[in-house]
Amino acid sequence: xxxxxxxxxxxxxxxxxxxxxxxxxxxxxxxxxxxxxxxxxxxxxxxxxxxxxxxxxxxxxxxxxxxxxxxxxxxxxxxxxxxxxxxxxxxxxxxxxxxxxxxxxxxxxxxxxxxxxxxxxxxxxxxxxxxxxxxxxxxxxxxxxxxxxxxxxxxxxxxxxxxxxxxxxxxxxxxxx
Length: 177
Ligand SMILES: [Zn+2]
Hints:
Elements: H1 9-26, E1 36-40, E2 47-49, E3 54-58, H2 67-83, H3 91-100, H4 113-119, E4 124-130, E5 135-141, H5 146-149, E6 161-162, E7 165-174
Parallel strand pairs: 1-3
Antiparallel strand pairs: 2-3, 4-5, 4-7, 6-7
Helix pairs in contact: 1-2, 2-3
């Protein structure tokens, strides 16, 4: 198990700014000129574009490594501002979204299981107990996995680590309790 770079809010804002500049270079006229980026706690939607030019992203992205999904969501929402929100996901939006490099109808779907689980109300948190006893929360998950339940550092087989620090065992925190 390798940890990947986790997205922070400043990192998300940097990626957003990069995508917005790209979009501005490609499209001079925006039906809704961009005004501001903010975050909400939505768990069912990754992003939303408003007629007043605001784009709201779910803070679900924070702490994940779902950069591809983030970029896709940003392009999706920017395309709404450029094409006009009233046109929804019609041909006009599709044309703009394709120019920006968004996967069609990407919002609401995800290739990142990590993000998918976080978006849902997954009942468990997988916790890695390090060899020195430190506990690190890994991610929200739907079910306990045998390979983590049965894993012990001393046992034969694969040894999991986080950035070179070996994991002694795993535990699950049950949020339904
Ligand atoms: Zn949309």
